[in-house]
């Protein structure tokens, strides 16, 4: 996922601009760090459980009684979306701490990222992302988009059942996303300790 570059760019921004008097990025938030760890734990558990119930080959027919059928997993997707909303609300709570200079700089960085890298969001979610100037908030919007896309892909899969390989790819993308989010938050913590 090329989108992880935005997380790394945020981490670099924090390091480079740490000595500036203006508030250019949101401050470190331990709850975002621990919350992203908890989200990973829950999502990875769902992925591993689902992988064990999934076939190795794509099904040729739809069987709604199959435990891996998308209809049987709606509650799990709903739980993950609630968890991403909790993280997003937390990020939003601190987004006002970025001053005007920081918002301007972040909007320029965001335009660069959005032009250079494909988004994980569909067009309507991109509109939502555009409302926020905070890169931290956008990171959690992207995390929510990841889950929304997972659900849509599951519903569009042949037989509405994912294969074990599909679940393995999801785990890899989840790890990349969480690592990038954590790197950005840890960079803020290191900067605040200086």
How would you describe this protein?
Residues 1-20 form the signal peptide. Residues 50-70 are annotated as: Disordered. Keywords: Signal. This protein has 7 helices and no strands. It starts with a helix and ends with a helix. The longest helix is centred in the last third of the chain and has 29 residues, at 164-192. The chain has helices at 4-16, 30-53, 74-94, 100-116, 123-130, 135-156, 164-192. α1 (4-16) runs parallel beside α7 (164-192), α2 (30-53) packs antiparallel against α3 and α2 runs antiparallel to α7. The radius of gyration is 18 Å and the shape is elongated. By secondary structure, the chain is an all-alpha fold. The chain has one domain.
Q: What is the topological layout?
A:
Elements: H1 4-16, H2 30-53, H3 74-94, H4 100-116, H5 123-130, H6 135-156, H7 164-192
Helix pairs in contact: 1-7, 2-3, 2-7, 3-6, 6-7
The main sheet comes to: none
Number of strands: 0
Structural class comes to mainly alpha
> How would the global form be characterised?
elongated
Instruction: List low-pLDDT spans.
Output: 16-24, 112-117
H/E order of the elements? Answer: HHHHHHH
What's the average pLDDT?
A: 78
Q: What is the helix tally?
A: 7
Number of domains: 1
Strand content: under 5%
The Cα radius of gyration reads 18 Å
In angstroms, what separates the terminal alpha carbons? 31 Å
Keywords: Signal
Region (Disordered): 50-70
Signal peptide: 1-20
């Amino acid at each position: 996922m090329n989108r992880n570059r935005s997380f790394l760019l945020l981490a670099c921004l924090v390091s480079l601009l740490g000595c500036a008097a203006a508030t250019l990025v949101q401050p470190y938030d331990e709850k975002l760090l621990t919350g992203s760890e908890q989200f990973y734990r829950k999502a990875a558990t769902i992925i591993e459980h689902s992988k064990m119930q999934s076939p190795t080959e794509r099904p040729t027919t739809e069987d709604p009684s199959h435990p891996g059928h998308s209809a049987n997993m709606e509650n799990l997707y709903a739980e993950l979306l609630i968890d991403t909303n909790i993280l997003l609300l937390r990020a939003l709570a601190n987004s006002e701490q970025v001053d005007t200079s920081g918002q301007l700089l972040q909007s320029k960085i965001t335009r660069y990222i959005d032009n250079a890298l494909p988004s994980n969001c569909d067009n309507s979610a991109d509109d939502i992302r555009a409302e926020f100037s905070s890169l931290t908030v956008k990171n959690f919007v992207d995390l929510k988009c990841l889950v929304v896309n997972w659900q849509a892909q599951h519903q569009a899969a042949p037989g509405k059942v994912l294969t074990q390989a599909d679940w393995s790819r999801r785990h890899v993308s989840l790890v990349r996303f969480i690592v990038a989010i954590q790197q950005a938050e840890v960079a803020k913590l290191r900067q605040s300790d200086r």
